[in-house]
Amino acid sequence: MKAVGASIPRYDGVAHVTGASRFVDDFRLPGMLWAKALRSPVASARVLRLATARAEAMPGVHAVITHADVPKNVVGHQEVWGIAADEPLLAEDEVRYVGQLIAVVAAETEGQALAAVQAIEVDFEERPAFLDMRQAWAPDQPQVAPDGNVYFYYPDQPQRQIRKGDVAAAFARADVIVEGTYRPGAIEQAPAEPASALSVVEPDGRVTIYSTSQALYYSMEITSRHLRMATGRLKFVGGTVGGGFGGKLDTLTEPVTAVLALKSGRPVKWRWTREEEMLCSSTRAAWHIEIADALTRDGWILGRRTLTLHDAGAYMRTSAYACSKHTFHLAGAYSVPACAFNTFVVKTNHVPTAAMRGFGVTSASFAVETHMNRVAEVLGMSPWELRLKNANRVGDTSPSRVAYANPSTVSTLLAAAQAAGVDLPEAQRAMTNARREGALLPAHLVEQQREPVAHLLAWREGRPALEGGH
Amino acid sequence: MKFVVNGAQHTTVAGPLTTLLYVLREELGLVGAKAGCQHGSCGACTVLIDGEPRRSCLTVVATLEGAEVTTVEALGDRSHLSDVQVAFNEHYAAQCGFCTPGMLLAATALIKRKGGPVERDEVVEALGGHYCRCTGYVRILDAVVAASRGERLGAMAPSALEIRGVAP
Predict the structure, then answer these.
(1) How far apart are CA B131 and CA A242, in angstroms?
(2) Predicted complex: ipTM over 0.90
């Protein structure tokens, strides 16, 4: 444990300060071609015609690819977790968001590739776009995907849901009900280095891919699906990433350069412009979160109902996973004995949304903590006291009924108060995360501490419930 | 067009409106300057032209006749780091490293211009056009101020936990 908290030289520190670190765009290979892309200028349209013959005849052009060139065009970012494949690498007969990839050219210079992109002929029949996730159930809205605008976690259940305790009873006996709506917006990760990839077909037929991925094996798996090549025939080179922040979990450049390299027989590099990075790399999702808390007048949370809408954008990518995480975290760091949480993944004609720094959880934390302040204001009590009172203690259970063995809410709150120079009453300063008793164990929290605890995964797999949590 | 790059005479074969960034990276293989935005917003392509920090992505070679260009490759190597390079390393001012070459050159020019210690607000002014997504800038300011004073810690700067006294 000597390393924890200690100052240790970075393994790449000297390389960084001498400019010697090699990012993907810094590699040059003999015969290397440059890629440029034709992207959708509209949010929703049918593609009526796509003709590349003129572009293929342009000077310096070695390959132009469309969906027909991709061995397996439609792939899902989370097929391994059972989320159906829904996203084409290159658009087929429709486009669903501004910036969606339609065709890519590989030429000897970036200028020649750009000129050839402009020579690709494409005709669109524009359709109304669906952009406001709050209209997901309104009649006569444009449908983003053939299976509708709302993703279904199970055949008969669209939402990721959590049910715990008797929510109806909690709301029936509440002194006060406090409601709030919270809408964190979409955010671009904005790494300093735009997404880039460089693919080379080796003499033995294996493909080497220099990648800016922040999850190399994940990207390799998705690329192998698109190429229908075993992962053993792919070699990914990575490790020096010019900032990712979640945005470089997406695997959008690697399969494209690989298909171009296989078609042209030359190494192909594609580096996105800053405009592409801003326009059509995934963003953090926008969210619409409604919370209603059933409360006693003295600040105990008896129960919570939530409704969350998540803007997935045009394709699923990692949204189902993000919304599961989101739902598990909607109690925040507090003990909520009765929960009814409903989270919906809504598809829209926005750019697909994906990872960014704790995605799914940050939106829940923002909503819950803002709501806690609102509750304190309505009840006229200190927001510190409200939080400390309801903070998780040993033996309290999460919304998914995992018993906390050593929750850190109380110590975190006390440290935050100290850092912020807030002078808390002695009784609050003396609080710990010890098992509830006395005034901190009101009747409504007794029952949840007695409940047999089922680990969520154990329940899903039909194994016997685990006693005592983890 | 003839100009000097890191002390060596270079005659470019590129057209007069070609950017210096392109000539450095594609013609000379000097890839320290980065193509972060290619429209003058991020500062990752910054080099020194006659000692002044300039955006190489906006500088066309037609303007460079007789000029002297310095890139990160000339600041110092692994065995002979400059004060600014040492400070950036010791203060963890480089995280992903992509913006670092531009920052180093702008900081080097600032310290040379001032000829002595610089204040934090002067660093903010001089490096204000440089985008860093990772660090939050505090460590970069620490590094430039330390370098301007010729400070070498000879060790890594204390972590936040060490400063607060809760780590070894």
Answers:
(1) 12
(2) yes
